[in-house]
Specification:
Oligomer: homodimer
Largest interface: A-B, 25 and 25 residues
Shape of chain A: globular
Number of helices of chain A: 11
Number of domains of chain A: 2
CATH class of the largest domain in chain A: Alpha Beta
Helix content of chain A: 40-55%
Strand content of chain A: 15-25%
Distance between the termini of chain A: 25 Å
Chain lengths: 259, 259
């Protein structure tokens, strides 16, 4: 059996990344860790998030993973991949940033995320570092996660809140918008009503799949890889939501673990 | 020096309770613990919340407290005060329920809270247990906490969301509404627009002060008691918000601690 790929997030959001990976590389084996006992990371200090990130990756290493994907934006903000010399590690921030730079024509890029992600500035820093011509417009959207978790993805309230958050980015004539939170893809239809047809949304799930597909030479062959989902605090809600997000993807094993 | 009173919450919300206590009993000494590294409790399983509750109370006991106040609704849901034989412990649920039963005339009581608090049903159970004639109308309001944390307490969006959540309770002709979350008092003006003048809101902060004032024979004398604030993950945001919530109340000591 081929060595598995580890994916972790503080909670459910990263399952959108897992889903995209399984769809792109169906014969690979995946192990997902949702650190639900300690979620959300966004409200915690960088030092605490850093400690959690390293605990989680070290836990996943016990499964002899061939690489780790940090599907949590807050954890991705404090990731220093060079510290894992023998293990390839990529985060959603690196992936989203590179995809946005490939997509933009006018070099005006918007970034949305939680207050922690936007405040920490990791997307903005990496964009500037890779291309100092880029103009960046960042906006924190703290109501988006609760709207998604409330199931209000299609609701007039959500349309109003999207307008409130995104109107200024449209006025700034961005042509690319990085969705800097794994929950946000579920709001794409509502956001598209404000953004119109000319602004491209960059979804980290797709961006990660593209990045590791090349870098880690993963197999795109059809097949039946295994999918294992672990979380640090099982609740029925998590299991139910995981099923909804993963949709047709079968979970081979679902387990509560202690780190 | 008189033995201090311990107050704990998963985060900032319980500071509204601390403030009310300090105003009612200014010569008493208080020690507040905000378990910010592990917040929010609401999304975690009852067993995990129970473990955190006992860790926090045991931590506070090191300061020789004369009583502990559980200002967190989720933790209050799983509290069994009889397990602390030698230490008086009260939670916001007991306090809010008793105050609501005193206030209602028509025995129709509404309860609002996070999804966890409402789903767990502790308010509903205790109300029924103390008076089986009560008709209870419960409503989860998961967008209220992020609205408060966004500072949108006075905003047309908040008015719309209040209407969405509270309209049904008004139609049910409740005369009393328990605010089952320590953040909610900050939304009183917006909620009042939907509730009108005939529905009384029960604020746990005031209810707790009333309950322990009698039960624990605390001093209402003027004086300069000390206020110590501890949290498990200091961030600048916490310190800043704590200052805003406590307003004119002076914090004598602010410290990050490990449990």
């Amino acid at each position: 059996m081929s060595r598995p790929i580890g994916v972790f997030d503080s909670g459910l959001g990263g399952l959108t990344v897992l889903k995209s990976l399984v769809q792109s590389f169906p014969s690979e084996n995946f192990i997902y860790l949702g650190d639900t006992a300690r979620l959300p990371y966004g409200s915690k200090s960088p030092k605490t998030i850093y400690n959690y990130l390293y605990q989680n990756i070290n836990y996943l290493r016990k499964f002899d993973i061939k690489g780790a994907i940090v599907a949590c934006n807050s954890a991705s903000s404090v990731l220093r991949p060079e510290e894992f010399k023998d293990l390839p590690v990529v985060g959603v921030i690196e992936a989203g940033t590179k995809a946005a730079l490939n997509a933009t024509q006018n070099k005006r890029i918007g970034v949305i995320g939680t207050r922690a992600t936007i405040g920490f500035g990791a997307y903005q820093d990496l964009l500037k570092q890779l291309d100092d011509q880029i103009e960046i417009f960042a906006q924190a959207c703290p109501l988006f996660v609760p709207l998604v978790e409330e199931g209000l993805t299609h609701d007039p309230l959500t349309n109003l809140i999207c307008f409130r958050y995104l109107k200024n980015l449209v006025d700034q004539q961005i042509d690319t918008l990085i969705l800097g939170c794994t929950h946000y893809p579920l709001l794409k239809p509502a956001m598209a009503r404000v953004l119109g047809p000319n602004i491209q949304m960059i979804d980290s799930a797709d961006a990660i799949a593209e990045l590791v597909g090349e870098g880690w030479s993963l197999s795109r062959q059809t097949g039946e890889g295994s999918v294992q989902v672990l979380c640090t605090d099982t609740t029925d809600h998590f299991k139910q939501m995981a099923g909804l997000i993963l949709d047709t993807i079968k979970i081979d094993e679902f387990e509560k673990v202690d780190l």
